[in-house]
Amino acid sequence: MAADFVPHFNSGVMLIRVNDWSRAFFKQVWNVGQLPHPWFDQATILHVLGYDECLGLGPNRCNEPNRSRLARLDTAWNSIPGIATAPDPIVHHYAGIGNPSTRLKMLEADALTASMRERLNADLRRAFARQFGLWREDAAMRDWVTAERDSALAELHAVAAERRGFLAERDDARAQLAAVRSSTSWRLTTPLRWTRRLFHRR
Q: Which of 4, 25, 144, 153 has the fewest CB atoms below 10 angstroms from its CB?
């Protein structure tokens, strides 16, 4: 239920009862395959459940029978720092972080502090959860700035390469013209060109 999202289920953490229905459901997910959407497997699961609105695929299909088997886990089991953060999370889910290095660093910080957080009271665990959200926001901003910088540098390199291409074409044309002017045929036809110019002037 994050502020900037259409409410939807996240498949980062799932509890699945193994039975005929779950086997058939995930076979259906497998058969549908990956949709052209940045949420990958989650998009396919939502589509099979009839939640198309959050995917931009049209209205929801509210009569989808698979929904009767669905229940919602508390966000504490799938807390996404900076997006959908639980006050006292059990599982931090680092979804939506495009830079793998940033995601790995946050996972490492989480793992290094996990045993210490378990011994803290609820208020301190909540403070840690807020801090993880702030770290994520800072990291996302740095990644955005880096991506913008890299994009600008790539454009600059492309312009420079295009300019080098134009200069090379110019120099090649000049070399060809110089070769023509130094040729025997050019020298022999010089009087004819002078005559032609004089004729056009009159």
A: 4
